[in-house]
Amino acid sequence: MTSVEADEPEQAAAPQAAPMPEQGPGSDRTATETPPYARRWAALGVILGAEIMDLLDGTIMNVAAPSVRDDLGGSLSVIQWITVGYTLAFAVLLVVGGRLGDIYGRKRMFVFGAVGFTLASVLCAVAGSSEMLIAARFLQGGLGALMIPQGLGLIKQMFPPKETAAAFGAFGPAIGLGAVLGPIVAGFLIDADLFGSGWRSVFLINLPIGAAVIIGAVVLLPEGRAPVRPRFDVGGTLLVTLGLTLLIFPLVQGRERGWPAWTFALMVVAVAVLAAFVAYELRQEKRGGATLIELSLLRRSRYAAGLAVALVFFTGISGMSLLLGLHLQMGLGFSPTRAALTMTPWSVFLVVGAILTGAVLGAKFGRKALHGGLAVLALGVLIMLLTIGDQAGGLTSWELVPGIAVAGLGMGIMIGLLFDIALADVDKQEAGTASGILTAVQQLGFAVGVAVLATLFFGLLGSHASASVADGERRTRAELTAAGVAPAEQDRLLADLRLCLKESASQQDSDQAPDSCRSVQQVEPKAAEAAARAWRTAHTENFSSAMVRMLWVVIGLLAVSFLLAFRLPPKPREEEGF
Questions:
Q1: Residues 25 and 446: beta-carbon distance below 8 Å
Q2: Are 11 and 152 in contact (CB under 8 A)?
Q3: Staple 78 to which of 74, 143, 346, 438, CB 3.0 to 4.6 Å?
């Protein structure tokens, strides 16, 4: 869900890099003059626990979303907002969280964020409506953005230079563990239905984890803040939050409301607000005032290319991850546990790819390895596309494993290099800010991907429903004829089937079956059985057809990322102390 993120210009850019001395750029003193923090390794465990907690909550919705909608009802956009709410709040407030840690103290903000995140998890678990859950997810993402950015600053403060690489190296396995465990834990807890809690248990699991993180933080983390206390950019924060909200809201709501004029008007206003944000930041920069982002970084063409690659890449990947989870459960009828286990090779091979990159590929091949990772990822998506299109309703978990594993391997190679290469041309004193902006753009890509790709997916479900029924019409008519149904009644049933499938794909409330579906069931038992089989077949084929089309969109986004990556530096930065 999140990458390791720096919050000050003098901080390190990525987990593999060694941090600058605490005294700041240009200082003659070194971190070795002060004895290292005695409880630094135990404190590192607390920071990693927070990372894992964030990752769990960033990935569980890929498995839990269908169960949430079945319980709370609501339109299909509910699934989007449950995910978008978390990632959008996290993306917008990520840099803000780092700034607040510099101003008010990193330990203080870490503890505040951890307490708030845990309480927000409880609010998610007890949500009585989809609206309450969405609001709690926004709150949870925002508080996570206050907690997570403090980790890198604290590591920089606690560890001497010779131990920094080992400390940052621990993030890889922790992030991999969180990515692997998230879907599996979610699937197991939902199917286990402990004490009748169902999907709510995926949020309640944060109670013991959060309690351990909070106690550990209070006992083990040192106090600390940035040597130079930055000013907080209130105006920039408000403008960027408003602009992104105005952009995301109509993208999620537009399809089910028929794309009224106000949705396009809001998107136009969003562009104007974001332009005003850039103008405001430029004016603040000229006046020497507080800024939310360093606009001078955007003038570096290779760094700007890195931001573009991250935005396009994570837009495609985040949308695909959610849609694959929906297809497995809502389209193919997999249980949450089976869906989670089916998707596990993605996370496992992602870790393998990241390890290969760190050990060999990154240093030896640089940008070529990044291009290779994108190519392998696209190959994996193509294998999934062909598998889903060929098997449709008869798809098994094992048939999906090759494509999912290859895609995971490619993604691991790619993201293992993206941060290092994107930051290669950034000055040392700008590394922390540059890393923070890059991480925020990554999270924004997650939010945009879920909003845009899920909107397209649900739209395809509705538009292709009639064609899915028509594909099996001959077989359905034969079964209805065998059941003694007259031709005129068959015409009515098939018309109702088409309408039922279309309305089921876009209904406002999942608790209420459309009238067309109820009329299909009000026939003789044999005819009802034949109609039910026809509906299940058409439903699965409809999901498969929509998924295949969306995977082509993902491949297109990966191709754009591949082309944009030619503008990146050829090698990661290798200097000591970056």
A1: no
A2: yes
A3: 74
